[in-house]
Structures are given as C-alpha cells and as structure tokens.
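Input for the complex:
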Amino acid sequence: MTNLQSILNKQNTLSDNKFFKLLGVSPFGVAVFIILALSPLFIDDQYVMHLLISSLMFGALAIGFDFTVGFINIVNFGYAAFMGVGAYTSALLVSRLDLSPVLAMLAGSILAAILGFLIGLLTLRLRGMFAAIMAWFFGITLMSLAANMVDLTRGHLGLNVPILFPGAGRDAYFYLILGITAVTYIVLRKIINSHIGLAFRAIGQNIEAARSSGVDSTKYRVFNFTVSCFFAGLIGGFYAFFVGVLTPAVMHTRVTVEILVLCYIGGRGSLWGGLLAAFLVIPIFEYLRPLMEIRLIIYGLLMILVMIYYPGGLAAVYAQLVDLIRDMLGMKSKSVTG
Amino acid sequence: MFTKKRLWVLALVFLFAFSLLIAGCAEDPVDDAPDDDAVDADKVLKVGVLGPFTGPAARTGEEFKGAVEMAFNRVDNQIGDYAVEFVWIDSQSDPERATRAYEEAAVRDQIDAGILNWHSSVAVAAMDVAARNQVPHFFGFGATEVVNEKYESDPEFYSYWMGKTWPTPSKLTGAYLETLDEAIEEGLWEPRNKRFAVYGEDTDWGRSFGAAIASDFEAAGWEVVGEEYFAVGETELVPLLYSLRDMDASVIAGTVATAPSFAAFIKQAQEVGVQSVIIADGLGWIGEWYEMTGADSNYVLDQIPAWTTDQARQFVIDFEEEYGFTPSTSGGGLAYDQASFFIQVAEATLAEHGELSRETLYQYGQDTLWTGGLSFTDGIIMEEYMYSPDSVPDPVVGEGYFIFPVIQYFEGEGKITWPAVWKEADFQSPGYLE
Amino acid sequence: MELSAIGDILVAGLLRGGLFVLMALGLSLIFGVMNIPNFAHGEFYMLGAYFAYFSRTLLGLNPVLCIIMAALGGFIAGSIIEMTAFKALRKRSKGNWVMNSFLLTVGLSILLQNLAQATLGVRFMGISHYWQGSINILPNISVSIDRFAGFVIAMATVALFYLFLHKTKTGNSIRAVSEDEDGAMLVGIKMNKVHTLTFALGALLAAIAGAALLSINPAYPTMGLAPLYKSWFVVILVGMGNVWGTVIGGFIVGIVEAFSYYNLGAGWQDVVSLMVIITILALKPSGIFGKSVRGVWDR
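Predicted:
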C-alpha cells in the first residue's frame, strides 16, 4: 500500500512539475508534440506531410476560435475574414515591400488584432447572438473590401504569393506551423488558466451574474476577441505562404463554418478539442473524397448528431472515458486495500 | 455519468464511422480499365483529371468528367499497350483543398500526368504541386493573367504546367470590336455616340475580361464611361442596370460565369430599357441559358464556339443520352477536345520514347508540343489546337487556330456574324434601340 | 441624380424589399418563438424554388398554384425537420440552447444543400417567366409583371400571416409562447404543437419567397446564402418580435441597397449596409423597433 501511495505521489509530482505548469501543457501534450516534431523523420510521403500541415493549420485556427466561443460564448462568425486580413497583409508586405516573411506575418497578425479590437468594441456590447451576427456582417464586409480594392489585393483575380521555402520538401512548412500551433495553444492556455480565464468563464456562463459581481464584461470580451483575431491573422499569414495564392474566397463564411465544425466536434471550452478534431476529420474526409457530395451529406448529418447526442464533442467523450477508467481503478485500489 | 445508453450511442457512432471508412475503401477513385487480354496488366497510364467536381462550380466538373470519359472511351481506355486509369482530383473550387487533392494524386496515386482544371486560382496553387512532384499537367483551363505571371516568375520550374487550354482574355476580346466596326462600315448599325461601359461578375474572369475589352475599345477611340461589377450570384440587378442605362453608352460589354446572374442581367436589362448593344461574353456557356432568359436575349452578342460540325452535334446527343444534361461548348466541348489532344500527345510520346511516364510525357511536351511540332486537328470545337515557343503557355490564337466566333442570338439560336469565313448572318441592330 | 431615376430606384428598392420581408418574417418568427437562430433558413428558400420549378415544369400548374405547392412543400419539410431534429435536441438540451440549436441549423444547412446537389444535380432549374410582359405601375415606370406579382404575393402573405397571428386561437398561442413561455405552458398551451407549427410556418414563408422569385433566381443547391444574410440583416436592424417592424425594415434594406447600388456600384453595397446598421445599433442596441429583448438572447 505504501508503494502504491508513493507511486501516486510520484505521479502527482510529475503533473505538478513546474516546467509543465509553466507551459500550461500536460505531459501527455508534450509527448504528442515531440512525436509530431519527430514525425518528418519517419514519414517521407509528401502527401501525409501535406495532410499533417493542413490538419495543424485548421487545428490551430480551431484553437483560436474556441478561445472565443468556448469561453465567452460568442461565435465569431467573421473569423475567416480576420484570417484573410492576416493573409493579405503579410502577402502584400512581402511581395510589395520585400519585408521578411516573419516580420510580415507578425504585422499581419497585429493588423488583424487591431481590426478585431475595433470590431470587438463595436459589436461586443451587444448580446450573444447579436454579436455573432454582427461579426458575420463585418466578415462579409471585409471580404467585399478585399474583392473591391483591386489595386491593392487584385480582388478575385487572385494575388500571387511568393514561395517561402522553394524546393521540394514540406518539412519546413511543417515545422513552422507546428511552432505556430504550439505557441497559439500555450499562450491561449496560459490566459485561460489565469484570473482572466476565470472572468471569461463567468461571462460566458452568465453575463448578468458576472456583471453584478463587478466584472467589466465588455473589457474582457474585447480583450478575448483581440487575442483570438491576432492568432487568426498569424495562421492566415502562414496560409498565404503555404498555398501561394490568395483570393477573397479565403474570407468566406464557408471557411468559418468549417473551423466552427471542427471546434464543436472537438468540444467547446477545451482548446485542444478542435486540434484533435482537425487531425481526425481532415484526413478522414480526405479519404472519403471519392464519395463526392455524399461525403458532405455525412458531414452535415454528423454535425446534427453531435449537436443532439454529444454537444460536448470529443472533449466530453474523453472526460467520460477518464471517469470510467478512474472508476475501474478506484474499484481495484479498494480491493487492494480490502 | 457513463450510462449504458451512452455507451450504446457511442458504439453506434463508432460503427457508423467504421462503416464509412469501409465505404470509402470500396469506392476507390480509380476507374478500372476494361478487362482486355490484349492489354498487359502491368502497363497502366494514370491520368489525373483536375476539376471542381463538388462545390459551387460542380456543374463544370460534371461536364469535365463526362467529356473525359467519352474521349477516352473512343480509344477503349487504351494508349498503345497501356491501360488508362483516371484519378479524379476534386479541386472543390478552393486552392488550398485543391493542393491537398493534387498532392494525394501525385504522391499516393502516382499519376503520370494531369489534365484540365477550371479556376485560375486553383491553377496557381496546383502549379507548385505539379512542379515539385514533376508531374506534367496538360491543358488547364484557368485563363487569366495570374497564371501567366506565375509561369513567367520561373519558366523553367513551372514548365510542368504544360500549356493552357485557354489564352488570356485579352487575346480574344478584339473580335467584338471588329464585328461592330464591320457593322458600322457596312451601314448596318449607327451608334448614337462612342460611349462604352463595362459590367460583369466580380471574379477573376469577369475583371480580366472587362479590363481587356475596355482597353480594346479605348484604343479604338471609344470613351469608357463606367464599370459596374457585382457579386457572384447576384440576381437583383435592376438598380445597377438603371445606373448603366443612365450612362448612356451605345455598347455595354461584360461577362458573368454564374448562369442565373447572367440570365437575370439580360432579362432585367430589357425590363429597365437599356438602350445599348449588349455584349454578353459567355452567356451560352451553360446549357440551360435560354430556358432562363427567353426572348430577352435577342440581339445579344456573344463569343462562343458553336457545335458546327456533325461530329460536334453527335457529341452533344451522345453526352445528353449518357449524362442527362446539355454540355456547354466551353466546358464539356473544349474538355472533350483537350482530352482527345492529350490522347494524341500520349500516343506520340509512346511512339517516340517507347514508354509512358512522367519523364517521357514531360520531355515530349517540352521538345515537340511546345515547339509547335504537334498539333491537334480532329477537334469538335476548334479547327486546330497548337502551341508555339512564342505563345506558351497560351495556345496559338487566330483564324484557323484557337478562335471564338462572334455570334448574335435570336430566339435562342446563335448566328455567326464574325469572322467573315464562317458568317451565317449579318449583324442586326437591336430592335429596342430607339 | 435625376428625378426620374430616383423614382425608378425607389420602386426597385420597394419591390426588392418585399421579398426580404417575407424571408425575415420567418426568421424572426422562429427565433422569437423557439429561440433558434436559424442558419438553414436559406435552404427552405431553396426548397421553395425547387418545388415551384417542378410544379411548373412537370405538373404544368398555373403560377399561383405553383407557389401554393411550394408553400405546402416548405410547410411539410419544416414540420418533418422540427419533429425529428429539434424535438430530439430539445429533449436532451441542458442549457446553452441558442448556441446548440444554431449549430444544429448549420449542420442542417450543409445537409440540405448537399442532398439537393446529390439528388437533383447541379443544373440551374429556372423558368424565363411566370407571366410574360411588363406593366406601368406609375406613368413612366414600368416593371415586369413577375416582379410586381411577386411583390403582391409577398404582401398578401404578410397580411394573411398577420391576421393568422392576431385573429386565430392558434396564432394567439404562438404569440403567447413568444412572449412568455412558462406562462403559456401554465395556461395549457401544447408546446410541442406550437413549436412544430412555428418552424413549419417559418419554412413556409421562406419557401413562398423562393417560389415567387423563381423566374429571377433559378433553383440551385447553394442559392440560399445571400437571402439568408439579407434576412438576418433585416432582423438585426429592426429588432425582434414585431411584424410591422419587419415589414418596414425589409423595405428600408431594399431601398438602401438599391440606392447604394445605383450610386456606388455593386461591390460597395455591403459596406454601405454595414454603416447603416452600425449607426442604428449604436443609437439603439435593440434595433429600430426592438422591444427590450433581454433574457431571450442569453438563453
């Protein structure tokens, strides 16, 4: 029995380890990260690498999306437009002003954040669904601006984006997006774990109660929105260099819906759920591509079923599995002590 | 928490997902070639067909698919002793997804060559994938300057994008001006002024066409008095047409790729009473256009290849019988020709190099196709398809080569008014002009 | 801008607005009574267009009957969807209803669009006109009969709908639920019935709009997004739960768009519309005619 206790204690110390706490990631998360980081050594199938990059990219977008919807409970329905702002800004800075891509991506995300801040100020005084729909209108407007400022963006004609890493490999792109995803996750997790995260949750659960207990809800919501848009812009910058061409269609509602679906299948309020969902949904649906429209029918049906039967998504399934295993272990340890 | 019922639901979901995976396996994208003892089972030519098979432009994708199947059926899906297998690369009209799909086709399915493509933005994204994997891709449709720019940024690297089907719009728009100039000369039409306005759908194609035709008319001494572009799919165009009407232009020109928008534009132009000769480039692209416009399309000018030969008309009949809808000349018709052209390229490659692979097809394309050493004359749309060192990546444009006649519509029928060799009827001044 | 042009644009805006009203009314009804922010509303518009197309081409019915068929079709489709999907969701819902139901409708929208594409293909199914010709509604201003008839049908539907809500028992119970769900339950109103009926009526209104516009918008799987956006715009602009407000809002949006279209060109109308809505919401956050809708939005 003392043995068991010491093992349990050890485990506790492991997960209480300062390093992990500092990062805001569980040891399991770090393990996954390391496995992913090593994967290019074992995979030389460029298609698999491409899928991994796409999954990471949409997973990271879903993390940023969940930061808003899962915590302050507002659907940023114009999310793809912010991603597009980041994408266009960084592409234009590189192709017109010859800025280095890293700086350009940073500039793109800052511009997206500033826009997010302004739009947040305007919409987030409104209530839940109002704010979501207003964000949607803003997204559509940003898209039509991108389409109409032809001198700058070339509109629907498409903007050629210089290639970031010429040559054959996808590995460089992979490490870049892996880094971006890790930073996105860690930063957002740190915010969620701080007192700010508590305020977010309070606002998301019951805004009236949060207000009456003295939380300045608009301030927190605008802050949340700004941060989320910053990361959308950052990943947008990556998108531009990865795909090599930009049209206003990247800002379309369809793209937002795609991210939203990942986020919900993954489970709101978990941050990592969307990432996991991206790694499942994107490869599976690639695999089902020969089914054509039927695939999208399944997609819609899946969403309806998830919403009705598992509104918590994969994160809830995980939590239940953990509970189940705990229950079993609990019984076991009882029998040992008995 | 974890009740029996929940477990049950979970199990069901897993079962569902699992059965989906099985279903996905079962319907492999690869169309098996017919069993034929004469064909050596080892020798397979894998052809990736890039097109928007699902998504907003799925209609074009369907036409591509039908046209390619029909073209290859003519040779029993065989090139020499190679059996042809298709890999349908679904671009979903989105460059990012198209690169995923193309990468899969290049790496997983190991396609030997790619053919076709619709959107210019997809072309730009797919060019990189094709070049990186050294897959020669023949005859993509995406036509606008952005493709040529990308090609010119590194002609050697992007030489795997082997020839566009369609030249940049500016190489074709001049025909309208010639048609109208002829009409004025012959006294068939007297414009009340030299004012010209552009309209169009706000897409790569719409903008590119509009800019090209505006510069043609401007160079010929016309005054360009306005431009009106509208969002894709917009069908409520009355206010815009009032604005066009009030510009008082004798000619308005533009293109719209979305059929309902185009039909709405033509109908509402009559409703509003636009007093101009209307150039509607590509109105006839979608088979059902006349069902939607009715007689309001009378006098409208279009530049579109017609099904002129018996062979072409037979193609339409066969296509309708097989797939249940009418193909358009610019979608299904051209795709059929280009697929046939590709067959000829592949046969010639086999004859010259003795095997079909990425390398030999690319080599043949570089050495012979791009130098004008091979041309295709058995098409149903154009007389001759050819490339030359001056034209690449565009095809050779002009009479006898890639050319679209200018036609004028009456009761749903297009009468060729230009060029003179094909002329079926004189240009008629629209009856609604006062 | 000439005076005659102003008249033309005003008429065009009004006619355009009439069908926004119809769409927005259904959206507002479903949201007000059931708290479902319906993202699939455009898909009922699409269904209406398909029903009308097949009634016209396969059955050869006269235009009015086509629209009635579409209305029936929309009603039936709406009730089936309500009784399967939303009933199941309501039974299991443990809070956050607005968000969950919203996502359900997103799934529904994807499902219906692709079902239409898989079964009916990607053909544009349109007709050139219901009624040929145009009429002068004012001296100097002529519009096509189709457009005018569409407007008349829209207005007649709105009038009937208003009478239904205010003069019938069922209509009264729908209104009661929208104002106070718990209270309505206490008085013995059968919630399930009211919910199904409400959703079906919303679908019916959208289907009529789709059918009435068939000669302008041919039926196509993805045709629903633009009208969806427009109707949300009207709803946000005027606020909730006010039939007359929605009617006026629809006209305002139609006219504003027509003028910005005329003066600035098509691409900028979204920007102009956004400016209008921001200004109005800055002055009155619950919309022009909105009652205080606290609570409803957070549920």
